[in-house]
Give the backbone structure.
Amino acid sequence: MLASAARATGILVGWLADRALGDPQRFHPVAGFGTLALALERCLYRNTRPAGTLYAATLVGGAVALGVAVESVGRRRPLIRVLGTAVATWAVLGGRSLAREAEAIADALEAGDLPRAQGRVRNLVSRDPSVLDADGVARATVESVAENTSDAVVAPLLWGAVAGVPGLLGYRAANTLDAMVGYRNERYTRFGWAAARLDDALNWVPARLAGALAGLCAPVVGGTRADAWRAIREQAAAHPSPNAGVVESAFAGALGVRLGGRNVYGGVVEDRGVLGYGEPPRPADVARTNRLAAAVSRGAVLTSAGIALANALVARRRRRAVTVGA
């Protein structure tokens, strides 16, 4: 019971730290992991799936092993366990920094400074911002906030609730690798296959939780739950990603805007379907998206803490049953 209570407490403390502080400007653990991943890529890269699988397994497995070691240190020390979980949660979450980037883009758009907005949106998306007008930048920002609310907030919280520090670190490692090598281009189609598939698998449940929470929170931004559910049901499958489509369609329906469409990535045009039923998002909709993302984040941390405590109760009942049976 104490271990799972410590896990729930650590998750809550880490989430509060992220909301208050955001990411560190220097010596970010995820950036350090990225540097390590680049070094290992130079050693292991071959244009084959087996090489990419070894690469992903080594890095994700190493992150999980580190998490196991952290939890073993605090096994009999609840305070250390809480602190270890809190630090890991804070390190892997990206909610506050995501909101700050979106706010900076919204400010630039409101000021009519399109070049500055285009420059800032590069921090959120990989599409070519030079071809985007103000509404295009707004759409890219809304889509990124929606997808990353799932990837950088809901998913790590859920994996932390289910698997503790190993789940937090392992998930973040897999998600970071997908962002680095999970592309369908000449270099990474085979090498990045394992990282991309692993990230898809780990995000399947969290993306649907994020979509459900976005629907539930639709009234926070003046939307309706029915439009969010309808968008998920009718339009999510049009998106090429099995997970991003669920979250982006939910946000589009909740916000009453239309997302998706044609994007340009490195000169390659990709059609992501039409998501939502309203007009394309305007700069003012970026602030609404941040409010919806914050509501989803609050719902996710409460859900995750509840899961951790429920696991504790189930484990306690099992131990009692074994004791009585003996």
User: Anything to note?
Assistant: Residues 134-181 form the longest helix (48 residues). The CA atoms of residues 238 and 273 lie 5 Å apart. The mean pLDDT is 91.
